[in-house]
């Protein structure tokens, strides 16, 4: 329950509450890899990447066969700017959709654009408009703000559940100063 509360605090941009609640969850359930995974996600969301890496490594040590944790670790490394570590982590999770997403970002940063674009087309073929938030994040990270904003508008039209991450998602940071992005955020009417 504390991890869910921490995630909600993260989505609303409450940094101190996110971190303190996440740390408390770990103290109370220190052998549960799901707790570490959840706290790793929220720490990534509040841009505490180094701590997220530590927490996600603990999750992996507790349950090394849970592939998604490698993708989450890769995403934290990617956001830290450690693209080679991110590549290694995400390639270990390539069978997971989160691993594919991570590789789409990492390969682009490493100049492997054809592979990155192939992975994006695969995601789009499998998910259609349901993946609008994911595509918005990818295009934002690729530096294509126009396409990223188009996909955010699609997410709004289709009432994509991923919009709950809009306020906090680090992958969308390149868009935050864009008037269209700000209009979407206002339309979502997040509580303060």
Please describe what this structure looks like:
- The chain is mainly α.
- It has a domain at 112-192.
- The protein has helices at residues 2-11, 15-28, 33-45, 49-62, 68-80, 83-91, 97-109, 113-127, 132-142, 145-157, 179-188.
- Helix 3 runs parallel beside helix 5 (68-80).
- The mean pLDDT is 92.
Task: Provide tags for this entry.
192 residues, mainly alpha
The major pleated sheet works out as: none
Span between termini: 21 Å
Computed CA radius of gyration, to the nearest angstrom: 16 Å
**Shape estimate:** globular
Assembly type: single chain
Strand content: under 5%
Order of helices and strands: HHHHHHHHHHH
- Structural category is mainly alpha
* Count of helical stretches: 11
Low-confidence stretches: none
The total strand number stands at: 0
List the helices and strands and how they pair.
Elements: H1 2-11, H2 15-28, H3 33-45, H4 49-62, H5 68-80, H6 83-91, H7 97-109, H8 113-127, H9 132-142, H10 145-157, H11 179-188
Structure summary:
The chain is an all-alpha fold and 192 residues long. The protein contains eleven helices and no strands.
């Amino acid at each position: 329950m504390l991890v869910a509360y921490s995630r909600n605090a993260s989505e609303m941009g409450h940094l101190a509450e996110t971190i303190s609640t996440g740390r408390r969850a770990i103290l109370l359930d220190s052998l549960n890899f799901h707790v570490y995974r959840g706290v790793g996600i929220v720490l990534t969301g509040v841009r505490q990447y180094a701590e997220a890496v530590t927490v996600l490594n603990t999750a992996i040590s507790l349950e090394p066969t849970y592939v998604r944790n490698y993708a989450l670790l890769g995403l934290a490394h990617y956001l830290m700017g450690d693209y080679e570590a991110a590549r290694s982590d995400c390639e270990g999770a390539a069978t997971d959709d989160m691993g594919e997403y991570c590789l789409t970002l990492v390969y682009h940063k490493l100049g492997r654009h054809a592979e990155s674009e192939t992975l994006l087309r695969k995601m789009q073929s499998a998910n259609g408009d349901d993946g609008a938030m994911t595509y918005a994040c990818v295009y934002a990270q690729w530096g294509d703000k126009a396409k990223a904003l188009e996909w955010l508008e699609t997410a709004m039209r289709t009432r994509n559940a991923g919009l709950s991450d809009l306020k906090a998602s680090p992958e969308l940071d390149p868009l935050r100063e864009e008037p269209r992005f700000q209009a979407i955020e206002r339309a979502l009417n997040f509580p303060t």
